[in-house]
């Protein structure tokens, strides 16, 4: 009886017959149609969890593998452990995503039509259908690596298990079943036990599969070339051989012992049976030198390194016929040694743990494996090409130890011969995720391409999916994020669940992340929230929501991803390629908006004027009049101040047809003043009349802490935005109980960024009020609509600055004579925001003392943030007003006695 596996079912049959194979192929065709609908994120979640469990020495599957594999595959236990760790590395979600990005250009194209900037249209990678994997038995991980490639490209897969190892593939299937309650992966493959040479079965595979991948020797590959179906694609991974090239000069620079240790590792791993294992090391002495000396020295260092490594990775079982081949190679070397043509170096007592043969003939030939390596001297690197030319079609990996100029020349010339992978020593047996495999982009061979030539960026398929499909993708992303944070962030390790979430609703059971958490667990105060060193990263100020501004951290790719989300809203709502846009946001001082929106405008295709709003208003006007942009992006107070200056000076040559505004609620806040003083109904009319504005839009709902949360489309007005559901999961919570609220109810906005990894933001309390609306948007997008409804009572935005209770409290406590009770009032003073602080004196003070304390506190608050001082100086906001009141005179709630500390009179 044979144990096997068929698309989610473990089976046992006497043998795999043609009728049974035909049945499997029919089932595979049905499964192929199903797998197309499975989100990539759902697959990665399963595979990543399988990798985590397999990496755990205490997990039963790992224990079973370690117990039985050494005897089955002939590797020592440490070598088996290394192979299992390699498989875990393959299964890592980020590594799989990187591989797909490298092979396909953008892994997202497996789920959606994705915009390609050079094509100026959309591309989609579609699974081929049914893929057969004909595995070789030399490295047991290789077959599963191939299977995983078929899974993540959404194909239905048949893996012909090697006759030498049916145990581990079936064990792997059991592991996947543990991790895959929904069948996202386990229903995508079958594991078939039959030996090569079964022509009746091979004919069915060759004629009814869409792709056949063959690994193995020349005969195995040749058997599948004949009789292929008219639409069957053959992907060949036949016999390949690898080598190392070193120069004496580079050896001296790096250290012979270090390089020898690295090469020894490449020779040792997988007992030299992988295609990437080196068979020969060529040592080039350099012009005019005897090449034998450096080669002899390196051969001895390599022998010592192999002997040392044998203690870490003891040699496994060597079959009798393999022992004969090693003995034969050694005897030939002894004969050559007596003739002065070679030197043989072997372990003590003539064990077969390893063999180094210093061979003066430069000709390349294949070793009998099991850590048998030839070291060959070369006079000049130019001699290598003719030596390797006969083997060109069989060359795979070459480790290069040479100066950059020489290494680049070798890589070019050997690539022309046939080699396709160049690496550093010590990395030949280690996967660099994304590297081509035998001259192909592995996963790229398993898809076909479709295109949609519509040149309209940001028309994203995800936005139009039904909710249940979007939520399934979001849940998979969320589970991957939680698992990542538990592994890499000390802060999150104990506050996140060990088990996967079964629904998005379960997220509400996790603790909220507060601004204080960020301050306490991020540099410079702490580092527990970060998941990696600060390399290739940005640091930004949070915008000053407290007295001590938070510093937040993003990687460069995260910053660019966020900029693309900002660009989406700008492109859909207001700007077009070719618009000349003045960036009047504030620059410097660790502010993020200027940098991020410059990047966003690049992605929209605008001509950008990076003027910044932090210079003098007169200088801004000078740039605008001279360079004549038709559009601008900034905060409302800048636009209103600009319009006021233009009107006061009677300018008629400064016009902005389009503006995008962010950071403040632009238009309602100035309505009363504009109607009463200027005789216009609202701010839009004022800006339209003075600056010629024809089109207004929001820059989107974004915070520096979490990034772009929601975007406007052409149909959105006021505080209405579409949630960036591919980037954030948004919850609306009751402000008091923190329980989730249904659509339509107003509550506090809590967001989880699904993309950020360096500084993960899970359930972050943004401090804003809003509600989710269920009515459909006329634009046709199905992602949820979020209406912004102001701030939670903790802070006020005055012009460009957020001013918190904490900051004001800290300053009040530093002014002698003032008590601890105060309130903040936001109002409009001649069309400008103004902060009024009413604070009670600690005891009775005379008029002079109250005025002195008020001036002192106003000065401290003005200087507390650079953006406040600058905005006051430029008359974008009115000066801060402080009123010192007698004790117990601020209004209290008659029932509770509490003070309403934040009052916004601009509403």
What report would you give on this structure?
The chain has 907 residues and is an alpha/beta fold. Helix 6 links the parallel strand 5 and strand 6 (156-161). Helix 2 runs antiparallel to helix 4 (77-91), helix 4 (77-91) runs parallel beside helix 6 and helix 11 (256-268) crosses helix 12. The longest helix is centred in the middle third of the chain and has 22 residues, at 467-488. The model is unreliable at 664-680 (pLDDT under 50).
Task: Tag the structure with descriptive keywords.
single chain; alpha/beta; seven-stranded mixed beta sheet; 27 helices
Q: Briefly, what is this?
A:
With 907 residues, the chain is α/β, with parallel strands linked by helices. The protein is built from 27 helices and 37 strands. The strands form 8 sheets. The protein has a 7-stranded mixed β-sheet with strand order 2-1-7-6-5-8-9, with helices on both faces. A 7-stranded mixed β-sheet has the order 12-13-14-11-10-15-16, with helices on both faces.
Rg from C-alpha positions? 34 Å
Strand content: 15-25%
Query: SS-based structural class?
Result: alpha/beta
Largest sheet: 7 strands, mixed
**DSSP, total strands:** 37
